[in-house]
Amino acid sequence: MSLSIVIEFIINVLSMGSLYALIALGLVIVYGICKLINFAYGEYITAAAYLLVFCAGLSLPWWVAFVLAILGGALIGFLSELIAYRPFRGRSLDALLVTSFGISIILQRVFQVFISPRPKAVNLPAFMSATISLFGITTPLRNIIVIITTAVLLLVLLYIMQKTPLGIAMRAAAENFTTARLMGVNANLVISTAFIISGFLAGFVCLFWVARTGSVEPTLGASPLLIGFIAVVVGGMNSLPGAVVGGYLYALVANVLSLALPTSLLSYRDAIMFVIVICFLVLKPEGLIRGNYQEERVG
Amino acid sequence: MENKSFLEVKSICKSFGSLKAVNDVSMRIETGEILGLIGPNGSGKSTFINLITAMLKKDSGSVMLDGVDLSSMPAHKVPKNGLARTYQTVRLFKNLTCRENLIIGAIGVGISQKEANKIADELLEEMGLAEKADSFVENLTFSEQRFLEISRALACKPKFVLLDEPAAGLNEEETQHMLDLLKELPAKKHIGILIVDHDMHLIMTLCDKLHVLNYGQTIAEGKPEVVRANPEVVKAYLGSTAE
Q1: Is A294 helix (H, G, I), strand (E, B) or coil?
Q2: A168 vs B109: CB contact, 8 Å cut-off?
Q3: What is the ipTM of this complex?
């Protein structure tokens, strides 16, 4: 195998893995605290992507569009928690789960009815589709951008979670919400922050996702949601590092399969991925990184 | 001389169905005092301490701390209003370091980050846990975890601390260490302590006053030596074979 193939492989794994890690993080940050798998997360990504389309329609500069899409993602995360989840907090987790399906469906229909059921083209700045030559190979520039962006985001997130009072409170709440609350930790603040970070990450995800697909449609969020879910199952539901590991591992396996499978089997790649995931659910349901889940002792 | 605070439980009641778990219990503690709450298993101690920390909703009565009724506020506001607690089963955050556990205690009651860091480091120093400040809780011995949980309660800068079996699971040496520490706390931190424990030596040595519950009612209160001689108490603890 020549060196250039190795480098290309590494860049592919890292760029794909970075995107998947971001997707998975957005899911886990909410799950860790609320124990809610937020099925509306995919629609946060879609909504942010539509914002990109609108900004392009208004001929705003690309960086304004990017910032608005990211902030829009954060805003929809915040609002969905405030409007839809908060009234059900303290009810059963099933109620929250159904609520999240509800938000997901409502948002999809809103996109269909008020925007368009058909895909809309997104005009991204030229550098998002440009290619560069690196170590003798040619790769899309956005692959490099997503790797760097993710690294920066992970560092920022790490800093927030480790050093700020809010981050420490979020980690405490993720471990044992009841006790954290009894210590006086502000539950609304912690949960809102989790949803805002989740939406914020969805905003970043949409930039790179849309750069690959080139268009936005109402069901755009379904695929990233599925990927995020798989990464989270593999990496571990209760751990932020687990989500990141799961994202990169997913990308690694997918790329290895792409290289290793004969052409005739290549279309079964996703099916093989799912078999792997099912094995994980059976053999190691807590994921690679166990995280901090513990049952509340009663009495 | 700083002002004294008072924690006053007035005629508090709680029933579960037809069972009167806590029936018309009153008590009073002030700053500087250690009050021991004892009683046989099932006497209502746990219900009682859950009532005064508002983790259970009372049926009637009140828990006044300097004129504020703790029992009618949500449980998460109780520490901010001056009453912090520890739990029978240690409830520290295992994935946080010792220092971070204390910081949670402090910021939970609205203390600023800067101040919280300072409080945490001071308490770790006082408790002899300074060198474990950045260790995760799971790397602590059980007795260290007990001390850390008490420190976390103190990090709330409370006026009163409720200790739920702080010596449970400790060996004799560690219990003595705990006793020495608790003895000093009221004067040093200007707080009052309400302690529940089954270790009679600890309770008798430590407490200024005792309060004995049985079947949800007060059967005796007063100085340890007086309470110990009370026939009702002896009967509750040793059974009623004498009758």
Answers
A1: coil
A2: no
A3: 0.83
